[in-house]
Design goal:
The structure holds 2 protein chains of 2 kinds. Chain A is mainly β. Chain A has one domain: Quinoprotein alcohol dehydrogenase-like superfamily (Methanol Dehydrogenase, Chain A), CATH 2.140.10. Chain A is built from 1 helix and 38 strands. In chain A, the strands form 10 sheets. Chain A has a 5-stranded mixed β-sheet with strand order 1-32-33-34-35, with no helix packed on it. A 4-stranded antiparallel β-sheet of chain A has the order 2-38-37-36, with no helix packed on it. Chain A has a 4-stranded antiparallel β-sheet with strand order 3-4-5-6, with no helix packed on it. The longest helix of chain A has 10 residues. Chain A is globular. By secondary structure, chain B is an alpha+beta fold. Chain B has 3 domains: 83 residues, Cytochrome Bc1 Complex, Chain D, domain 2 (Orthogonal Bundle); 74 residues, Cytochrome Bc1 Complex, Chain D, domain 2 (Orthogonal Bundle), CATH 1.10.760; 47 residues, SH3 type barrels (Roll), CATH 2.30.30. Chain B has 10 helices and 7 strands. A 5-stranded antiparallel β-sheet of chain B has the order 6-5-4-3-7, with no helix packed on it. A two-stranded antiparallel sheet of chain B has the order 1-2. In chain B, a hairpin with a 5-residue loop joins β3 and β4. In chain B, α2 crosses α5 and α6 packs across α10. The chains are: A mainly beta, B alpha+beta. Chains A and B meet through β29 of A and α2 of B.
């Protein structure tokens, strides 16, 4: 497709659809599929895939970003409040953005950032200190900045925002610091707040009874991965994180709503339409933040609008996304804390998994069976792809007093076993594992599926790998030179398809040599 | 340097002379943070493990609060000790308070003679065939030049008596069977989903594509002989340990 016709296409398709050549939102589409319709890289020619260009940024810290591509330009964020626009054909930098982060940040996991949201001529990102920023796409100049949370209290911001019509929807991080999570929407043109949903049920909320005493005030439930959106139902779906303090549940008796949950919010008002809690009264830091993938499935012969997620607690779940009803769940990794998820959607618990002073062994470990690594869904194969860990840990608990803005986890984990990893393809309609690629360790990298019959993922040792999406056969691999902690994307320029991924401090774009 | 080494060795015996401060809020906070970030190497009670025992009350990196602050923030270059530059001053202060409060326990008694241990190491033990101290010795096992500074007493003892118990990272055993039936056993130089790299006992380096061999596996067992508990008398073992504890690096 020529650039001119690409622009036409952008103008005529509704704001929420997008050209196959582009990658304009965190999850590729609003359903979070990370499925590229491009086919010129496919099962036949992928063995000859090779780097077309490499851009080295020399920044410090982990790179977890999903680059966006539109109109031949690539927009990507880096750690520590940095961002760039590159020519997506050559990797040449067009502009760069840098904003110094304040001293005294309280961070669990480094100054990472997971990418931009884009609408028209504007880009949106969060800065680590809890500021939402709008940039002019063609220059990188700041259009507005809005403070969304106070870093001195332990908040930080890392997730790519989600565009829903004229709203920039954002989450927040900081559940290890006794903060209270939220999902907020801001008007794209002004940066003024449209609505806020508090993910910890406070007094007055029907969920408030699930918190003993005033423990909700430090309840956690951060929202550090981008949600998804169903325009027909006009609902936004967002996963929530662990309750605080993570490993000592004595101070927060009850189920602790809406932690470790999926919430469905009205896109107009942010009001809660339904919620489903994966891990009631979590004690193992099993956030439910992983991208909620929206797929229409046939479950037991009936069509259902589903929401699917490989949850950190070791179970894969399918929910009815119209009402939050539990459909089914299946363990995809070693699980010792629950026998199964009952027909009522509640875990059938196995006793003796409470963290203790001297340590309690539980599987999966703190990082879970699958954490935040982007999942991919292929409508071609009907399979969901995600990386997984098989890992058990010792969970310790201590008493810990809460101090404003300070680390509040009430203990920790220990390791005395060597975990392994795998990349898993699950049939979401049944929860059956269709194939798995076993690995020497887990990985932080996410997934990409393409209409070329391929799935891309990375292992924990720097290999970018292309699999046959149906069989899991390795068709191609490339050692990128550093562990990958980001998901790959795909785009095309003048008909040439690229697969791009951030590895270490470099962006590598692959193509089939001309 | 020699002088420094013996000073350190005797300091074990007279460490932790300062009176115990009460467990403060700061040290309790520090304990929580320590368990998360530091315990994997320094042990859940700071007693040491892969990282040195921090309860000895005296530190190679320096004994003042400022020394400990600097070590925590910047790490120790060229060692496994990472820096924690993202920690706030408060958190680092809490950690130092915790380390001070943990340094109240009796230090382990070093009973043996390090001079005799040195002789046993190079002669009867044959340890030098696989380990370097300074520029002398082999390379199959880890360099022990800083062992007394890097590791705890308990960890070193376990390493000598039960080599399989806690394999030093990067020194796992790799076994490859080639298509023509040859079996090659050696120490890890790289092992991932597609490749197996190793050095055999003779020091020869191999690089295999896993797809081109019959089998390749990595095991968490040691190529160090498991016979030293029998070979050495208890007194000799004490001597070898005393020697290892004096190894504080060459400068």
């Amino acid at each position: 497709m020529k650039p001119s016709s690409l622009i036409c296409l952008l103008l005529i398709v509704p704001a929420l659809a997008q050209a196959p050549e582009d990658w304009t939102t965190y999850g590729k589409n609003n359903a979070g599929w990370r499925f590229s319709e491009l086919t010129s890289i496919n099962t036949n020619n992928v063995p000859s895939l090779a780097p077309a260009w490499i851009r080295q940024f020399g920044s410090n810290g982990g790179n977890e970003t999903t680059p966006l591509v539109v109109g031949g330009l690539m927009y990507l964020t880096g750690p520590s409040n940095t961002a760039w626009a590159l020519d997506a054909r050559t990797g040449q930098a067009i502009w760069s953005y840098k904003k110094a982060s304040p001293a005294g940040l309280n961070l669990c996991c480094g100054q990472v950032n997971r990418g931009f949201a884009l609408q028209g001529d504007k880009l949106f990102k969060v800065n680590i200190e809890g500021v939402l920023v709008a940039l002019e796409a063609k220059s990188g100049v700041t259009l507005w900045e809005t403070k969304i949370a106070d870093y001195k209290k332990g908040y930080s911001a890392t997730a790519a925002p989600l565009m829903v019509k004229n709203l920039v929807v954002t989450g927040i991080a900081g559940a290890e610091f006794g903060t209270r999570g939220f999902v907020e929407a801001y008007y794209a043109d002004t940066g003024k707040r449209a609505w806020r949903f508090d993910t910890v049920a406070a007094e007055g909320d029907p969920g408030a009874a699930s918190w003993g005493g005033d423990s909700w005030k430090r309840g956690g439930a951060s929202t550090w991965i981008t949600g998804t959106y169903d325009p027909e139902l006009n609902l936004i779906y967002w996963g929530t994180g662990n309750p605080g303090p993570d490993m000592n549940g004595d101070v927060r008796p009850g189920d602790n709503l809406y932690t470790c949950s999926m919430v469905a919010l009205d896109a107009e008002t942010g009001k809660l339409k339904w919620h489903y809690q994966f891990t009631p009264h979590d004690l193992h830091d099993w956030d439910a933040i992983s991208d909620p993938v929206l797929a229409n499935l046939t479950v037991k012969g009936k069509p259902v609008k589903a929401l699917i997620q490989a949850n950190r607690n070791g179970f894969f779940y399918a929910l009815d996304r119209t009402n939050g009803k539990f459909l089914h769940a299946r363990a995809y990794t070693k699980v010792t804390w629950a026998d199964s998820i009952g027909p009522d959607g509640k875990p059938v618990l196995i006793g003796g998994n409470e963290p203790s002073e001297e340590g309690t062994r539980t599987c999966p470990g703190l990082g879970g069976g699958h954490n935040w690594q982007a999942q991919a869904y292929s409508p071609q194969t009907g399979l969901l792809y995600f990386p997984s860990s098989q890992h058990c840990m010792l969970f310790y608990k201590t008493k810990q007093d809460y101090l404003d803005g300070q680390w509040y986890q009430a203990s920790t984990v220990g390791e005395n076993e060597h975990g392994v990893g795998s990349i898993i393809a699950i049939d979401p309609a049944t929860g059956d594992t269709k194939w798995h690629f076993d690995m020497v360790s887990g990985t932080s990298a996410g997934m990409l599926a393409t209409a070329g019959g391929l799935v891309f993922g990375s292992d924990g040792q720097g290999y970018l790998i292309a699999f046959n999406a149906r069989t899991g056969k390795v068709l191609w691999k490339f050692q990128t030179g550093a562990p990958v902690a980001a998901p790959p994307i795909s785009y095309a320029i003048n008909g040439r398809q690229y697969v791009a991924v951030m590895s270490g401090q470099s962006l590598i774009a692959f193509a089939v040599p001309k | 340097m020699r002088f420094l080494i013996s000073l350190c060795a005797s300091a074990f015996l007279c460490a932790a002379q300062t009176p115990p401060p009460a467990a403060t809020q700061a040290s309790e906070n520090g304990r929580v943070v320590f368990r998360i970030y530091c315990a994997p190497c320094h042990g859940i009670h700071a007693q040491g493990g892969r990282g040195p025992d921090l309860t000895r009350g005296t530190y190679a990196a320096g004994d003042t609060d400022a020394d400990l602050h600097r070590t925590i923030v910047s790490g120790v270059t060229g060692t496994e000790m990472p820096g924690f530059p993202d920690f706030s001053q408060n958190i680092v202060g809490d950690l130092v308070a915790y380390i001070r409060s943990a340094a109240q326990r009796e230090p382990p008694q070093i009973k043996g003679s390090f001079k005799d241990g040195e002789a046993l190491f190079w002669a009867k033990g044959g340890c030098g065939a696989c380990h370097k101290i300074g520029s002398k010795g082999g390379t199959l096992g880890p360099d022990l030049t800083r062992a007394g500074r890097q590791r705890s007493y308990a960890y070193l003892l376990e390493s000598v008596v039960h080599p399989d118990a806690d394999i030093s990272p990067g020194f796992e055993t790799i076994t490859v069977v080639t298509r023509d039936g040859k079996k090659i056993v050696g120490v890890h130089r790289g092992y991932d989903n597609f490749n197996a790299l190793l050095v055999d006992q003779a020091g020869k380096f191999y690089s295999f594509d896993k797809n081109e061999v019959t089998s390749a596996k990595q095991e968490y067992r040691s190529l160090m002989p498991g016979t030293y508990a029998k070979l050495f008398s208890p007194a000799e073992l004490d001597d070898v340990l005393a020697y290892l504890m004096t190894l504080k690096g060459v400068q």
